[in-house]
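Category: protein sequence paired with discrete backbone structure
Discipline: computational structural biology
Format: plain text, a pair of labelled lines
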Amino acid sequence: MIRLVKASRSYGTPPVTALDSVSLEIGRGEFIAITGPSGSGKSTLLNLLGGLDHPSSGEVVVDGVHLERADDRELTLYRRLKLGIVFQFFNLLPSMSVVENVELPLLLRGDDARESRAKALEMLDQVGMARRSSHFPHQLSGGEMQRAAIARGLVHGPSLLLADEPTGNLDSANASQVLEVIAKIASRRTATVIMVTHSDSVAALADRRIRMKDGRVAHDTP
């Protein structure tokens, strides 16, 4: 599913290395927690897997797509078809209702509008947000916005879901609800879930924990 071979990323002149020759293999359906201090390379690794950045050297292969050499068109197709992303700050469009936010990835890839609405409502039901489908983001709690963001990230059936500190902006009660949703999704094994977190208790929910330090993999623990 995912293979990194000596993947590195450096920035600036003189170069500062954010990711240093990382090699990893992650199987389809695994639930991975990536931990480590700030500046350890967690976000850089996530950006490479999301096709949001290119490695300076090495290989990054996800579901058969070589991201290190993909052009803009290939990366756009990869993100539309194979990738779901959940951000810490939700990134819901404020002028759209919850269901309109969730169906947007389907409409962007050209799916039928009626079918897209039906799939969006079904996904909202799966994350416990069906009754809030017609509300707007400003009418939701933080936990509700994050559950809506998870529904948007999964509605198009991606093979990879990236979650960047999905509970980092939530209180404990809302964080617990969001983690329950993510754990439920991961248990189905229909998508590989990779979650960046600073929390040991959150990381404990995953099948496997990868700890980063100074741009390298310090520990890889089942």
Remarks:
- The radius of gyration is 17 Å.
- The first strand starts at residue 2 and ends at 11.
- The beta strands are 2-11, 16-26, 31-35, 57-62, 65-66, 83-86, 160-164, 192-196, 208-213, 216-221.
- The CA atoms of residues 31 and 219 lie 16 Å apart.
